[in-house]
Specification:
With 355 residues, the protein is mostly helical. The protein has 16 helices and 2 strands. It is globular, with a radius of gyration of 22 Å.
Length: 355
């Protein structure tokens, strides 16, 4: 069995049936799985998905304080920018393009640490990275941890139900997990520790990193604008933390065929280029599935890519030592042939009209 076929923990309802078709669990099955895998009292190996959602719950009070105590339209504008643009773009820069795809390299560990902690810590790298490799290998197929064809809840609760790594990997397979995570700077458990905790990251290190990150950012925001600003931005981070869990469902067209010629160029899966995620976070998702290792996915002139602008700026300052940019390849392989085909069709239609 291929490594990516079993690296993730299989949900109780399975990935596919005996005929190889995608299993689409109902809401009851999904929620049962969700709460079972959050149960740290039943199994300590459930600590990482529990920890991931604990951080979301801890952000909720800040959100309500912003709404009911500190609300103002200027703060609402700040919250919008922080959640939609800053948090979204950072997710693309750090979790997506660096941690998963290695689309660029840092000059040293300081700049890696700097980029990792540019925003409030929310998503554990391990949950995102390993499952995202599987997503690309099995996009919109059984085994894709957030297969949009199985519905909204299947995707929304995937970080608990489908994305954690398996708890019974062999030492050789765990070493492969370590290789996929090594460049992120997240310290790995030993194999013995992995068997105890069921994760790549150690809970002690994860909690310490979380506490230090939140303490730094709350103090910084407080010094800039008091509790009002701090609660606003922490609440905005909570809003983003929930909203980002909807992205892959939307980014794969809710499991439907919505790709448009001239907008989408990868037809091997159901990924689509969406204007809003593209503009605010550099997530031109169909382009990304064409060239997953590219530090840029906004290839066309109107496709603003703030994640790439950050990477490019860091390259100019020397903080990033190298990066991959597939824009030229995209133009040569897809965009220019499309324009030539479109031009040929127009000429043919004009010729037919003349005759």
């Amino acid at each position: 069995m291929a490594f990516l076929d079993h690296v993730l923990q299989t949900p109780s309802y399975g990935w596919k049936d005996d005929e190889g078709n995608l299993i689409k669990p109902d809401a009851g099955q999904i929620f049962k799985e969700f709460f079972a895998k959050l149960n740290v009292f039943g199994d300590l190996k459930n600590w990482l998905p529990f920890f991931s959602w604990l951080k979301v719950l801890c952000l909720a009070p800040f959100f309500f304080l912003f709404i009911f105590q500190f609300f103002s339209f200027p703060l609402l504008a700040i919250a919008f920018v922080y959640s939609m643009i800053i948090m979204g773009t950072h997710g693309t820069i750090w979790h997506h393009r660096y941690c998963t795809h290695g689309a660029y390299k840092f000059k040293n560990k300081f700049w890696r640490f700097f980029t990792q902690n540019l925003t409030i810590n929310v998503i554990p790298e391990e949950i995102y990275v390993i499952s995202h490799h599987v997503h690309h290998a099995k996009s919109d197929q059984p085994g894709d941890p957030y297969n949009a064809e199985a519905g909204f809840l299947y995707c929304f609760l995937a970080d608990v139900n489908h994305q954690p790594i398996a708890k019974d990997l062999s030492e050789a397979d765990y070493d492969r997990v370590k290789l996929l995570m090594k460049h992120t700077g997240v310290t790995a458990n030993t194999y013995a520790q992995y068997l105890k905790w069921g994760s790549y990251v150690n809970p002690g290190r994860a909690v310490l990193s979380w506490v230090l990150n939140w303490a730094f950012w709350y103090t910084t925001f407080y010094l800039l604008g008091g509790h009002a600003l701090a609660c606003t931005l922490f609440g905005a981070a909570g809003f983003w933390a929930v909203g980002v869990r909807t992205f892959n469902y939307e980014g794969h067209a809710k499991g439907e065929d919505k790709q448009q010629e001239g907008v989408d160029y990868n037809f091997k899966d159901k990924s689509i280029n969406q204007l809003w995620p593209g503009l605010v976070a550099g997530e031109w998702h169909n382009n990304h599935h064409l060239f997953p290792k590219s530090a840029r996915s906004g290839f066309k002139p109107y496709q603003i890519d703030m994640a790439f602008y950050y990477i490019k700026f860091m390259s100019l300052t020397g903080a990033v030592s190298s990066y991959t940019d597939s824009k030229k390849q995209f133009n040569q392989q897809y965009y220019l042939p499309y324009l030539a085909k479109k031009k040929a069709v127009v000429k043919f239609e004009e010729k037919v009209e003349v005759e």
